[in-house]
Automatic annotation (TrEMBL):
Entry superkingdom: Bacteria
Entry similarity comment: Belongs to the LysR transcriptional regulatory family.
Residue ranges constituting the HTH lysR-type domain according to the UniProt record: 3-60
Keywords: DNA-binding, Transcription, Transcription regulation
GO molecular function term, any single one: DNA-binding transcription factor activity
Stated name of the protein: Substrate-binding transcriptional regulator, LysR family
Organism of derivation: Colwellia psychrerythraea (strain 34H / ATCC BAA-681)
One Pfam family recorded for the sequence: LysR_substrate
InterPro entries with a match to the protein in the record: LysR_HTH_N, LysR_subst-bd, WH-like_DNA-bd_sf, WH_DNA-bd_sf
Record-linked Gene3D superfamilies: 3.40.190.290, Winged helix-like DNA-binding domain superfamily/Winged helix DNA-binding domain (1.10.10.10)
Length: 296
C-alpha cells in the first residue's frame, strides 16, 4: 500500500487533536474512511502509530518519532502552495500563558493580522506547563511563557522582560507604608497562582532565595480571581505588573515594595519544525522585532 499525503495529514491531525473523529471532520472524511486510512498507513509503515484503549487513541513511541517528519512534509507542501504568493495566509496556532495572552498577545496579533490579513489566528490559553505540553504534542507552532522552563525537544528563547508585583487591598495594614519586609512576608496569608504557572514559579524561587517560608491561603488559576480575593481581604497577592496596572492606577490595589527579586523574562517556545513553517517563522521574526509600546 502507498503512503499518501492524505493519510499523513490524517495522522498529524489525529495526533494534534487527540481524536480520530475530530481529525476526520477537519479533513472532510467519514469516520469509517478515516479509520481505514489510518490502518493502511500503519500497515505501510510497518508499525502502529496509536494504541487503542477503548475509544481513545494514545500515540506510540514510534508515532512520536515519526510525527516531526510528517509535519515537516506538511509544512514543505504548504510552502509550495504559497511559493508564488506575495501574501502570507493560513492558520497561525499559538498557545500562551495567561498574562501574555491577556495583556500582550491581543495587540501583537492585531498588528500582525493587519499586515497579513489572510492569516487566521488560533489562540489557546493556559499555564506554562500547558504551553510546553501543546508544543511537545504539536498542537501549536509557537508558545509564549512567563516562567522558567527546560525541555529536551523544544527551543526556549528569552523574549521580553517583565516584573511581578506584590500587592494588597487599600484597607490592609501594609497599605499606608506600601512596603513589606522579610518578616511580614512570612507573617501574612497569600493568594497565589497554582503550581505549574510561570508566575508561581518565579514567586516561589524568590521566596526560596530569601530563605523564607510563607503562609499560603488560597491557590487560584485566574488572575481576576486573585485580584478580587485580595480586594476582599483574603491575603496578599503577587502577579505581573501588567495584570494589575489598571487597579494600581485607580487605587483598587496597592503595590508593596519588597526585598524579593521578582524580575523575569517572558520566553518564546518553538520546536525545530516551526522553522520549516513559513507562517510560523514570519510570526516568530515579528515577535522578536516588535517593541512592546503598550503594557497596560
Amino acid at each position: 500500500m502507498s503512503i499518501s499525503i492524505k493519510k499523513l495529514q490524517l495522522f498529524e491531525a489525529t495526533a494534534r487533536l487527540g481524536k480520530l473523529t475530530k481529525a476526520a471532520s477537519e479533513l472532510s472524511l467519514s469516520q469509517s474512511a478515516a479509520s481505514q486510512a489510518l490502518k493502511e498507513l500503519e500497515q505501510s509503515l510497518g508499525y502502529p502509530l496509536f494504541e487503542r484503549t477503548g475509544r481513545d487513541l494514545l500515540i506510540t513511541e514510534n508515532g512520536l518519532k515519526s510525527l516531526p517528519k510528517v509535519r515537516q512534509i506538511s509544512d514543505l507542501l504548504d510552502s509550495l502552495k504559497l511559493a508564488n504568493l506575495n501574501t502570507m495566509s493560513g492558520v497561525l496556532r499559538v498557545v500562551a500563558s495567561a498574562t501574555i495572552a491577556t495583556y500582550l498577545l491581543p495587540q501583537l496579533i492585531a498588528k500582525f493580522v493587519k499586515i497579513y490579513p489572510e492569516v487566521i489566528p488560533e489562540i489557546h490559553i493556559g499555564n506554562t506547563q500547558m504551553v510546553i505540553d501543546y508544543l511537545d504534542k504539536g498542537k501549536a507552532s509557537i508558545g509564549l511563557i512567563e516562567g522558567p522552563a527546560v525541555h529536551r525537544h523544544l527551543q526556549i528563547t528569552p523574549w521580553q522582560v517583565d516584573k511581578l508585583q506584590i500587592f494588597c487591598a487599600p484597607e490592609h495594614s501594609l497599605a499606608e507604608k506600601a512596603t513589606i519586609n522579610l518578616e511580614q512576608l512570612q507573617q501574612y496569608s497569600w493568594v497565589l497562582r497554582e503550581h505549574g504557572s510561570g508566575t508561581r514559579a518565579i514567586f516561589d524561587a524568590a521566596i526560596e532565595q530569601m530563605g523564607a517560608q510563607i503562609s499560603l491561603g488560597i491557590e487560584l488559576t485566574r488572575q481576576s480571581a486573585i485580584k478580587e480575593s485580595v480586594k476582599a481581604g483574603l491575603g496578599l497577592g503577587c502577579l505581573s505588573q501588567l495584570s494589575i496596572a489598571e487597579e494600581l492606577n485607580n487605587g483598587g490595589l496597592i503595590a508593596l515594595h519588597s526585598p524579593l527579586n521578582l524580575s523575569r523574562r517572558f520566553a518564546l517556545v518553538t520546536n525545530k519544525n516551526s522553522y520549516h513553517n513559513s507562517l510560523a517563522q514570519t510570526f516568530i521574526d515579528y515577535l522578536m522585532d516588535e517593541p512592546l509600546t503598550s503594557r497596560g
